[in-house]
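This part of the workshop introduces the protein records we will be handling. A record pairs a protein's sequence with a compact description of its fold. Backbone structure tokens are a discrete shorthand for how the chain folds in space. The question running through the whole workshop is how a given chain folds. The record below serves as our worked example for the rest of this section.
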Amino acid sequence: MLKISKLTKSFGGQPVLRGVDLTLESGKVMAVIGPSGTGKSTLLRCINFLERPDSGTIEISGVKLDASRAKSSEIYRLRRKTSMVFQNYNLFRNMTALENVMEPMITVQRIDRKSAESLALELLTKVGLADKAGFYPRKMSGGQQQRVGIARAVASDAEVILFDEPTSSLDPELTGEVLEVIRRLAKTNITMLIVTHEMRFAREIADIMIFLEGGVVAGQGSPSEIFEHSENERIRRFVSMAMEG
């Protein structure tokens, strides 16, 4: 389970997160939607301490941190419980697809190289890229690189996978192949927190959705509650415009 309480973060004195609260049960998928510049990506980066929050608590499967006084060893324990799929793929350019997926198994989980290679190839097969195992990122399309990134995130054996706008750098043709991989993952009871602007996808895949605006959770509910029955006029207007777009 992921539980966040009163999470705050400012940059240069400007508040970005103003006391975010959320709870995500194990095996569930949460979609985070909202206008640009409202702190969605910052929220993900604070969860795994790529950005250090100013205050608040984060708890993942029994590991709980107070952001204002967390020690490096505690941050490391929490970070091991998450993996992240970035907007810009973030693959190691000097490693093949197979080596990119193997890397967290070898360096973090200390799995022997032969076993890691076998597991990595299995994961690449699941994302439809077994035939690209020996390719370097520069030889793969953006969609293929993102699928490698997803396979690598799963390889880390994390409790929660964080997706930061996983299709924002892709053209429409490649977006579909990445979304299909995430759809398949969602059926395997992997806990996922997804920041996305793909409204139809979010509605289809999420168990629960939150609407983030002004650095706070302005709305929360099932896809049906957010898309069809929200009493919040701002959410209704945002969803309507996003779906039209």
